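The protein record reproduced below.
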Amino acid sequence: MRYRTFGHSGLRVSELILGAMTFGEQGGVGAPLPECERILDAYAEAGGNAIDTAINYRGGASEEILGELLRSRRERFVLGSKYTVSRDGGDPNAAGNHRKNLRASLDTSLRRLGTDYLDIYWVHIWDRSTPIDETMRALDDAVRAGKVLYVGISDAPAWIVARANTLAEWHGWSPFIGLQVPYSVLHRDIERELLPMAEALSLGVAAWSPLAGGVLSGKYTRAAGPQGANRLDADSLSERDHAAARAVQDVADELGATPSQVALAWTMARSPAVHPIVGARHLDQLRDNLGAADLTLPAAAVDRLDAAAGFAPGFPTDFIDQTSEWVFGAALVDRQARHR
C-alpha cells in the first residue's frame, strides 16, 4: 500500500480507505464483530491506515465495534467519523451542522470509539439552514480543544466548500482538508465542479461507492449471471449500467484482474487526489478490493472506461472548451502540458 499526504496537510493516508459502514448487523445485512475483526486485520496487514465511519452507521454499532477493535492500536490509524444525521428524530436540534449538534455528536462519537480525539471530523452533508461560518468556527473550536486534528466535508456543492475554506483562510480557522463524494465509472458528476475544485484547493478526495453500488463488481457480468434477488437487481439496471459493467469486465479479463480492482484503479488513475473508500461485509470481498493497490491501468484502458458510460461535463466546461481556440487564438495554453 502506498501513502499520500491528504489534501493540504502532512497527514499520511493510505491510497485505499477502509469504510466501516458495514460494521454491525443493525438495520440490515452487515458484518458481525468477528468478521469485522478479520476485515480490519487484513486491511492493516496490507498497509492500510485510514478508517471512515459516521455517527449513524448501523445505529452507532459501527463506531462501537471500531472502538473495541482499535483499543490497543488506535494510534496506528487515521480515524475519521462524520456528523449531521439526526441522533433523535424527535429533537429538532439533534441534527444539522450547527454548533449544538456538532458538540453533542462529537462527544457521542468519541465515547463510542473509545478515543479522546479524531484524526478527521467530517461534515456529513451540507445543511442549508446553518450558516457555513457557524459550522467552520465550531469545527475550529473542536480542533483548538484537541478533540479533532483535521476537518473535512462530504456531499456538498463546490461553491459552499470554496466559500468555507475562504472564510477559514480569512479568519485563521482550520480549513477543510478533504472532500467525500461518490465517484465511479458510472457516476462522474464530480468531474464538473467538485473534482477540479478539490485539485485547485489541494483537498484530498475520499471517493465513496467506487463500485457504483456493486454494479461494477462483476456480479452482473459473470458467466453464471446473478441469481435470486440479484437477478431482480440486474433486470432493473439501465443499458448504460450494463455497458459500463461490461467494459469493466472486459478490461479486467484482459489484465488478469477482477472487475472490482479495475473499477477502483480507474478512480485513482483519474486523479492523484482520489482515495477510494472500500467497504466489505466479508473478508474475501476486502481482499479482492485491496488488489487494486497493485494494479496500474494502461492509458488505453482508462480511455475505454471513460467512454463506456458516456459523460459530458456540460455548461460551462463544454462551452469553454469548444470556444477556447476562437476566443484565445495564439494565446491559447495547453492546460495539460502546463501541468506536466
Q: What stands out?
A: Residues 265 and 297 are 7 Å apart (CA to CA). The radius of gyration is 21 Å.
